[in-house]
Amino acid sequence: MDPTENSQSSNLPDSTQSQREARGPEGVQVPLAEVGEAEATATPSGGVSVGTMFRSPQNAVRASSPPTALGSIAGAPSAEASHNPLRRMSNSTFISQDVINRKVVILVRFLLLKYRMNQLTTKAEMQERVTRDYEMYFHVISAKAIDCMWLLFGIEVMEVDPHVHSYALVRALGITYDGMLHGALGIPKTGLVIIMLCIIFIGENCVSEQDIWHILNAMGLYAGRDHFIFGEPRRLITEHFVQEGYLEYRQVPDSHPPSYEFLWGPRAHAETTKMKILCFFASIVRRDPRSYTSRYAEALRDEMQRI
To answer: How far apart are alpha carbons 300 and 278 in whole angstroms?
Structure first.
């Protein structure tokens, strides 16, 4: 790990909500390497779908942060708003995207360690991982690391004390399962649970196994082939996610030969909402959730029934 030095001028992004609104259509590169035993790199590719999000090692994702991830944090405005953050941040210093990516990797690994240890982190600790040489890029690096945690792992970086700038790492959207004892050990799987719930809800609450695997294959997940985050995905999805109550996996009536389909399980209904899932999906594809007219209406009805 790089030498650590305290920085006085670096700042986390103002808020992840403002980041999402400010980012241009090019999206954000979200690199991952050596998370556990594996390496992955994400690069922007213009428009994306759910099917491109977890491809390894070269997956195209448009990173998206949770609405409540950091709250309001005093500091410099997000450089992402310029649509050309590296050029606008310094007149005298330019560092390559590869260097930025390596710093993001270091910070993601640090945040995963904090999550596994169930410890809070602080802005100062995160700054130390970036080092003084890159302090002017800290809010870009931290934004990308937060995006990685949210999108790939389903972990939200949430401010708990604005006075000391401390943050908790919590599972997103109300999901209480992280799957660290399933698949690749020690790596959160909440992100895949959320993606499965997105696919099913957008697919009108019931999706065939064939269609699920068509999407998962596009994400770089194949039955019988170990994935760098999820391990063997078929067992993870059809056994562990089902046993944990997040998915229902049932045979299609009167199907010959037998075919199967996926629905939300009872624990998914209990822990999260259709509106949260819809908003997560809409943020990935950069669409207003209301543009999914029937899905939005159903999510609203679900919200009313919970009151």
So the answer is: 11
| pLDDT tens-digit series, residues 115-163 | 999 999 999 899 888 876 777 888 888 888 998 899 889 999 999 988 8
Place of tokens 């009536």: 253
Q: Are strands 155-161 and 58-60 parallel, antiparallel or unpaired?
A: unpaired
Peptide linkage before 57 cis (omega within 30 of 0): yes
294 Rama class: left (phi>0) / alpha (psi -120 to 50) / beta: alpha
Omega before residue 257 within 30° of 0, cis: yes
Cβ-Cβ contacts under 8 Å for 53 (sequence gap 6 or more):
59, 61, 151, 152, 195, 219, 284
Q: Could you report the per-residue pLDDT of 222-279, keeping only the tens digit for each?
A: 999 998 888 899 999 999 999 999 999 999 998 889 999 999 999 999 999 999 999 9
User: Residues of 115-139 as b/e, b for ≥16 C-beta within 10 angstroms?
Assistant: beeeeebebebbbbbbbbebbbbbb
**DSSP helix/strand/coil, 181:** coil
